[in-house]
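Input record, target 12 of the design panel.
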């Protein structure tokens, strides 16, 4: 059995190619590792055809049912003519198995980073997100959970407190700061009132949007969960003016609950907490110390704690 900290130790290039070929694809031996840490993603050459993208899922993160919900959502979006890269079915299945690994195959769709300084592009993204949320509101995720304080504050902060990465001198202050932030975030959500949760992209930042001459398309629904609509908006529009423009486009296709704006700062802070917890939780995976060497340095945690203390002061100052 592969140790939990090295879930991909047995995922050699030969295994990747053999897995893809098990779906009936004739590969040409070309393999390119793509940038991914939570999962492992490869561009795979195909004989006499365009390359495919193979995504190998990290064991223990999502259940088969949760991955199937993600795939069904992507296919539902694609059927509604949303520009989303959806998994390819093989004998009716999109979640495939080979040896100890679960994987899916996708068409390769390249593109460039979006230019979101453009008002026209922001409006375009707003319209697309409104349509995506329209589809997302038709049903619910039952296996993927919600974007909530348990997921983005409490669980990741426990991972940090249990990790040797956090300097012992900061342990007590970090725990107190998280406790204070959790209460302040809960108060902001209570202030927003009843907010409808819907199926979201969940991680809709500029890196998960690719632009071609035909326009933008969404990639990577791996963090799709139930949550408030604003979660898919704020990362694409980091300033109030950009958010206003994005919402102008959004309003052309879907009403936006303006009370959700009070959640932008709490959601931003929740993402910061989750990021540190994610690194701490995955530190035993050899890819993480190589990719995030700064997390082994006390000064990074000192700065992270300072940022959280500043965030707590900012939230506490909100009337």
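The sequence produced for target 12 reads:
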């Amino acid at each position: 059995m592969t140790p939990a900290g090295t879930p991909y130790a047995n995922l050699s290039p030969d295994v990747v190619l053999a897995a893809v070929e098990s779906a009936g694809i004739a590969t040409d031996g070309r393999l390119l590792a793509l940038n991914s840490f939570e999962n492992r993603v490869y561009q795979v050459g195909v004989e006499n055809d365009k390359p495919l993208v193979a995504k190998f899922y990290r064991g223990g993160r999502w259940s088969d049912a949760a991955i199937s919900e993600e795939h069904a959502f992507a296919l539902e979006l694609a059927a509604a003519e949303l520009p989303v890269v959806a998994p390819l079915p093989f004998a009716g299945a999109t979640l495939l198995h080979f040896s100890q690994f679960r994987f899916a195959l996708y068409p390769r769709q390249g593109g460039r980073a979006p230019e979101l300084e453009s008002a026209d592009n922001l409006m375009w993204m707003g319209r697309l997100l409104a349509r995506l949320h329209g589809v997302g509101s038709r049903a619910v995720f039952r296996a993927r959970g919600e974007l909530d304080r348990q997921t983005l504050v409490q669980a990741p902060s426990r991972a940090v407190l249990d990790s040797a990465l956090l300097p012992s001198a900061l342990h007590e202050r970090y725990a107190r700061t998280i406790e204070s932030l959790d209460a302040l975030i809960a108060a902001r959500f209570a202030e927003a009132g009843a907010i409808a949760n819907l199926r979201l992209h969940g991680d809709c930042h500029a890196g998960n949007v690719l632009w071609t001459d035909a326009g933008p398309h969404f990639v990577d629904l791996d963090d799709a969960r139930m949550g408030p609509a604003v979660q898919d908006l704020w990362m694409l529009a980091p300033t109030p003016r950009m958010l206003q423009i994005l919402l102008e486009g959004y309003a052309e296709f879907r009403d936006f609950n303006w009370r959700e704006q009070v959640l932008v700062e709490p959601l931003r802070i929740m993402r910061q907490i989750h990021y540190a917890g994610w690194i701490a939780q995955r530190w035993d995976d050899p890819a993480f110390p190589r990719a995030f060497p700064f997390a082994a340095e006390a000064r990074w945690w000192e700065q992270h704690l300072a940022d959280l203390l500043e965030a707590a002061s900012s939230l506490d100052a909100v009337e």
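The beta strands are 27-34, 40-46, 49-56, 96-98, 101-107, 198-199, 209-212, 215-218, 226-227.
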